[in-house]
Amino acid sequence: MAKIFVADQDEDTQVPFLRGILIRSLQDSGLSFNDAYELATDIRSDLDKVPTVTTHELRQRVSDLLETRTGQDVITRYNKQKRPFAMQVEQRDGQITPFSRLEYQHRLETIGIASEEAMDVVATVHKHLVDRRIEMITSRHLGELTYRYLRQSSELGPAVAHRWLVWRDFVNSGRPLIFLIGGTAGCGKSTIATMLASRLDIVRTQSTDMLREVMRTMVSEQLLPVLHQSSFTAWNALPGQPSAIDKVPESLLIHGYRTQADLLSVAIQAVIQRGLRERVSLILEGVHIHPAYIEKLEADGDAIVIPVMIGVIKRKQLQRRIRGRGSDIPQRRAERYLKHFDEIWHLQSYLLSEADRANIPIVVNNDRDKVFREIMRITIETLAQDFDSTPQAVFA
């Protein structure tokens, strides 16, 4: 559907037609959301035939349609409204985009505040712009305005405002961000990685399971049998081991896992180095993100590497999550994971202990929104270690 512009002849400007703004205007006139949505959709379809419409023509089209569907009181309230306007944001590269309250709320959530807190800040900033009839604002001015309101907030205050400052400075720098998310089967690594990618607009994500699958097609099971096992059963492919043991010794379980993780370390390193060369952000997740490997990782000085270990510290909760995998994604065969649950549980204990030893942040996954906020706090704390700028410099 082609973009339609609304021309304001009085101010000699053009803004995109936004159905959401018309819906809110119709609701303010007394229509229900469903009726307002239906009418605005019809207007949008009708305007698809013309690339530009004046504000007067648009209001006349809406009034004519209201006459066929509603009473005079709704039409009167609509005609008494102030001229609607669409706020726009001029980005640093000169691109003009509509101001989206939801999108800006998500940006605020990246500094580790709750959705409700972000909504309150967006509402305050939006009211500031509406009260002053500001239809065009630069992204720099918008960022500075947000910083000021965050700092003045009694609930958030200077500490949160500083996080916003650090994050905006990083976003403007163009530096790559590398997330390394470890954890055992069922802890929620993939879900968290997907959320991070969506919220931060990171297009490159990779799982170590997929890397292992690719390596399996290249190397036969006869040559490297440990590669063709799961991380928690790799021990039984080690030389001289029986195919089944009633209770797997933890030392043997860890030896098998470490052997498999070492084989995958070359592929993991290749993925990371590719991202660094191309200066793109990347999310790498999987059970094979081992703390010892992270300690030896030599990252580019320009990149920010954020290692995180995800854990579910209640045994029954992890079991429920694994059962959920069977209903949501049958191919992952939850029964097999539950059969080896003791091994998975012991492997998680090992990974969490190793992460603690290596001072790698551990995030308990009880609620994915809270996990996202915690990971972003960790990220901004890392960025803040080298931050020495000022608000004037960040928003200059």
What's the gist of this structure?
The protein has 396 residues and is of the alpha/beta class.
Q: Count structural domains.
A: 3
Count the beta strands: 11
Q: State the distance separating the first and last CA atoms.
A: 37 Å
Strand order of the largest sheet: 8-9-7-10-11
Note poorly predicted spans. none
Question: In the CATH scheme, what's the topology name of the largest domain?
Answer: Rossmann fold
Assign an overall shape: elongated
Give helix and strand order, one letter per element, not per position.
EEHHEHHEEHHEHHEHEHHEHEHHHEHH
Strand portion = 5-15%
Report on this model:
- This protein has helices at residues 19-28, 33-47, 55-69, 72-80, 101-109, 115-131, 139-152, 158-173, 189-200, 208-218, 250-278, 291-296, 315-328, 334-339, 341-357, 368-384, 391-394; strands spanning 5-8, 13-16, 52-54, 88-90, 96-98, 136-138, 177-182, 205-207, 282-285, 304-311, 362-364.
- The chain is elongated, with a radius of gyration of 27 Å.
- The mean pLDDT is 84.
- With 396 residues, the chain is an alpha/beta fold.
- It has 3 domains: 5-86; 89-173; 177-379, P-loop containing nucleotide triphosphate hydrolases (Rossmann fold, 3-Layer(aba) Sandwich), CATH 3.40.50.300.
- It has 17 helices and 11 strands.
- It has a 5-stranded parallel beta sheet with strand order 8-9-7-10-11, with helices on both faces. Strands 2-1-3 form a 3-stranded mixed beta sheet.
